[in-house]
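Z., the sequence and structure:
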Amino acid sequence: MFFRIGRIFLVTLGIGVCLCASSLCRVHAQTGMMSPYSVFGPGIVQPYLNVRNMALGGIGIGLSGPGNMNPLNPATYRTGVDTLSVRFDIGFNVSFNGLTQEMDGTRAKNNSTSGGLSNIEFYFPVCKWYKMAIYLLPLTDMFYKTSYFSDNEEYPKVGRTQLIHEGDGGISKLGWGHALGWGPVTAGVNLSYLFGRLMQTSTLTFLDDTLAKYAGSAEYYTETRLNGFGLDVGLTAVIPIKEYQNFTIGTSYSLKSTLHAKRTTLAQGVFGSYTDTAYMPEAAVRGRYTFPSSLRVGVSYEYEHQCVIGADFTYAWWKEYSEYGKSNDVFHFRNTYGVNVGAELKNNPQATTVARRFAYRIGGFFQNNYAAGMKKDEASPAKELYSYGFSVGLGIPVRKSRSLINVGLQFGQTGSLKRGQIRENFMRVGVSFSSLETWFVKPKYD
């Protein structure tokens, strides 16, 4: 028993060190797409990027049974891992998006590509009724670049100018999960450390020769470093229907988190004719960010070793969000909601046909964004911003192993030209390796 607990501790410590080292690679900044909507608040809230769950439309709250564990609901860890096995999942994704905007009767378009590491997850048993998890996931992503040209007819001596806004960074989540349960009911908790940085730059460039002798460009740079702790709690209940058939109800709640912030600003002016640069740094300002609470509810029907169908509903209180004690006075923040549905035909390793040894997944999602645009007035607030899409995926078995190579495709759209918004069409391609290994079993020899 002592050997088993000691080995678990060493494995946990080793994985934790690896995850912390991986965080230096800025997972959050590598997974998101270039999107103008990431300018709001801490950036776009990232969906759970485990490739299997992505292919299932993002469901994960009401799942139970082997292989169905996920950080969205810590209660899923107990039934997702048996007492003799450990599970490890590492995923990567590449994202493509196309932006379309209507201006003065014409359409402007832009395409971009990004990608990188999307998730690291490790699940293992302590005993039959107690399981653990360690994971690293992106929580939000900020990645945008916008450009505005002005003729400055009102100030003709200034001439033409270009104003560029850029943002990069995001928040990551390093979590340590626990699940305990007896019989059909399981409770779970995630203790997490949230960290990251948000970098935003505004650059004003004078394009004409009118002011070339006096000014070339001016830049204002802001970097905000964030860190704090979070807590998620979850619950699942499995209701048997018939032999090998179960109905599961699950729920999870993420508590409101306070993140400590350290903001550094720098103003820079570049003078054209003198090729000189002036810096005006400001002392770092410390404050707090308030990250909102959220509630998730999910249900699923599973025919063991055959198929699973599920749906999730999510609600987040984004009106709680604040920076340095102030709510956003420029953008109209709303509480958000989302619906996810998905289904999977599970793989059968013993099937006689190759096609039946694969797992097949399909899903869809619909959600609104917490910020749509600038406030006009109370009588005409900013219009709602919606995202929707669908996904498909495969689970490819690895020979002589219980492991799977997961492949997923997600297609979607954010915004609508009919609502006067920028339309963003996106596609995400994900690949992950999900390993299932048997540990803690002493070999026997005759």
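The radius of gyration is 25 Å. Residues 63 and 300 are 6 Å apart (CA to CA).

Let me know what you think.
H.
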